[in-house]
Write a structure and sequence with these properties.
By secondary structure, the protein is mainly beta. Helices cover about 0% and strands about 40% of the residues.
Length: about 675
């Protein structure tokens, strides 16, 4: 979720961050033949839409919540990635304005508290962007004066800014430090007079008639404490103003001096995020709300819901039809991507070809079954998808359990997924573990148990008290590692070895292990490595005995552990300070360098001929010489937090991304690798 920075008591909407990309690129050096591809799923979140204004092209621009801009040259039938606004991964492109040529302007705010944003300009149809101004301002609204093209007005958290020279210089025109005229959400400029500016804030609407020299609140007739999310002047009569607020949609016939609340939209649809007038039918207005699209054909006297009320509509444009074709209504939604209508908003169909904007929360491979993959994605809702053919096709896994429909799992509560020797396993936020039963297509709870005699002694030391002890639970920060015969699990009773039945036994070598952020075990189960209490413990006899070594960092800085049995049992440690290795004969920790940064490395893949590491703040690094040297292989168009790395049989990497969707990277130059 990206931050909801509206003040307490407001009706601001938290929007899910969903983004994905496609890029083809090459990197010089030892990494050859790199090609990026986007595998989907299609759709996702759209923050903003802006049209070129040129009927001959019908080009549309789409802004995301990580700074990316997509474009469509064919009226939203297909999309392509164009570029990224700014250098940060949390840039919310809240507005895109075109001058009907190749020049674009974008209003941006960063999700990090106090990080600002700015107004950006592109002179090449969105491929590259430069900051124009307001770098330290979270810009949420941006409008160009229709009668004065060089004049721009921007709304930020600090107030209202004006530029009279095309965005090169900006001046604050609202009262500095004003407690009310700030936190701007929407703007409108009178097409007849650029000095007449309407401003919607998190609280109420305001108006200036002299370019900001004086302001007045225009509140007659509206319910107090209303966040003004959209302002629209009637193209046929600019004295008529439409406004959306938490309390509904309002209309004024006298420049905002008095407002009438329009009826017909239920209270549940009060968050109207955008109002757009149909240029070919001026009495038709489209209202994109958090409860679907509502349409009026009589200037607001009556409204009809034309989509599912489950749709969250963030943005909307109306495109002129070509050669007598009807106009096209294009919606940008929160989780369903782009939807289009060719019958004035009555019926809609998906239009996401080329646009993938889906969160991949996790991606894993089943090392015991070739071609089997699992990923957890977030579109309009969280889904579990499985592939049995190396990501060529995907199908949804049911959330039903053996307890019946009443016990269907909530996918939003999934904390982690695992590939166990008995089937896929998921861990919920409440600590429950569930195993997928492929034959029944149901989830079965994996309940862990420990013999009473193996329980830790209760305060009174009695076996009876041990029998009454609470059920085994996973530690919140604990982990699970699977061999081919069982699992090493960090529980409230310590580190245990557990079977498919749920029966567990203590591991003598690690009986006193408390904080265990990382565990590794071999496929045979004899070798076990554990990070606990500032030490690394390694056992070669299934956990009976262990040797111990100090760590290069504090325990709470450790993220994962990997042991390379084919490389003299070299041990690799992922931390917030880079990746460390421990190997004979030195038996001392060394940080991997050769181009790999000393930062938080969350994802790690080590396969013959290809190693990969994903940084927590974005950045994918690949090595083809056993970790001696590394190359960063992602560019701005793929840059994001990676949530999974899988080596494919065709010499490619499959990567899940928190902001870029499911991506495929061809690393090795093989004939098989050219098939995608």
């Amino acid at each position: 979720m990206f931050g909801n920075d509206r003040r307490a008591g407001g009706c601001g909407l938290r929007l899910k961050i969903l983004v994905a990309v496609l890029l083809t690129c090459g990197v010089s050096g030892s990494i050859r033949a790199q090609q990026w591809g986007r595998l989907g799923p299609e759709g996702g979140m759209v923050v903003s839409l802006g049209s070129s204004g040129a009927a001959a092209t019908n080009e549309i621009y789409l802004g995301t919540a990580d700074g990316h801009v997509f474009a469509s040259k064919d009226g939203a039938q297909s999309w392509e990635i164009r570029g990224r606004v700014g250098l940060k991964m949390d840039a919310v492109v809240t507005r895109i304005v075109s001058d009907a040529g190749k020049e674009l302007f974008a209003a941006v705010w960063y999700q990090a508290p106090g990080a600002g944003g700015g107004v950006f300009e592109s002179e090449d149809h969105g491929r590259s962007w430069e900051l124009l101004g307001l770098e330290h301002e979270a810009v949420r609204a941006l409008e160009r004066a229709p009668s004065q093209p060089q004049e721009w007005v921007a709304g930020t958290r600090s107030g209202v800014f004006l530029s009279a020279d095309g965005g090169k210089n900006w001046a604050l025109i609202s009262p500095p430090g004003d407690a009310e005229l700030r936190n701007v959400d929407s703007l409108a400029i009178d097409p007849r007079d650029p000095n007449v500016i309407y401003v919607g804030t998190y609280h109420l609407p305001w108006l200036t008639r002299d370019g900001g020299k004086s302001w007045k609140p225009i509140i007659a007739g509206i319910i107090d404490d209303s966040d003004i999310m959209s302002l629209r002047l009637d193209a046929t009569n600019p004295d008529r103003v439409y406004m959306s607020a938490c309390s509904g949609i309002y209309r004024s016939e006298n420049d905002g001096d008095g407002w009438t609340k329009l009826q017909g939209i239920p209270y549940a649809a009060r968050r109207t995020q955008v109002i757009v007038q149909d240029p070919a039918a001026p009495k038709t207005f489209y209202a994109g709300t958090t409860a679907g699209l509502w349409v009026t054909r009589d200037g607001g006297e009556s409204w009809t819901l034309t989509t599912s009320k489950e749709w969250v509509v963030n943005s909307l444009v109306v495109l002129a039809g070509k050669n007598g074709a009807p106009e096209r209504v294009v919606l940008g939604t929160e989780g369903r991507g782009v939807q289009v209508s060719d019958d004035a908003g009555v019926n809609f169909k998906e239009a996401n070809r080329g646009f993938t904007h889906v969160i991949v929360k996790q991606l894993i491979a089943n090392r015991q079954t070739a071609g089997q993959l699992l990923m957890v994605v977030d579109r309009s809702a969280t889904e579990i998808l499985e592939s049995r053919d190396d990501a060529k096709t995907w199908s949804n896994l049911s959330l039903a359990t053996e307890r019946g429909k009443a016990a269907t799992l909530n996918a939003d509560e999934i904390q982690s997924v695992f590939a166990s020797p008995w089937g896929w396993m998921i861990r919920l936020e409440n600590g429950q573990l569930w195993i997928w039963q492929q034959d029944k297509r149901l989830w079965k709870e994996w309940k862990l148990s420990l013999p009473a005699t193996a329980r830790r002694a209760a305060k009174n030391g009695s076996i009876a008290a041990a029998k009454r002890a609470a059920p085994l639970k996973l530690k919140p920060s604990g982990t699970i590692a699977f061999s081919g015969i069982g699992a090493i699990v960090s529980t409230n009773e310590g580190l245990l070895h557990c079977q498919e039945s749920g029966g567990c036994a203590r591991l003598k070598a690690f009986d006193s292990a408390a904080q265990t952020p990382a565990v590794w075990t071999s496929a045979a189960g004899a070798e076990i490595a554990v990070i606990t209490d500032g030490k690394l413990g390694v056992s070669t006899d299934g956990g009976i005995a262990a040797t111990w070594s100090d760590l290069p960092v504090a325990t709470d800085r450790v993220l994962w552990l990997d042991l390379a049995q084919s490389d003299d049992n070299a041990i690799y440690l992922g931390t917030n300070e880079g990746v460390f290795s421990l190997r004979a004969p030195k038996n001392s920790w060394e940080r991997l360098a050769g181009g790999l940064p000393a930062g938080r490395v969350e994802q790690w893949l080590r396969q013959p001929g290809i190693w990969a590491a994903g940084e927590g703040d974005g950045g994918l690094y690949v090595s083809q010489n056993g970790g001696k040297s590394w190359k960063r292989v992602d560019r701005d168009s793929e840059r994001g937090t990676f949530t999974g790395l899988v080596a494919m049989p065709d010499g490619a990497l499959l990567t899940g991304s928190q902001s870029e969707g499911l991506l495929w990277l061809q690393v090795k130059d093989t004939p098989e690798g050219k098939r995608r």
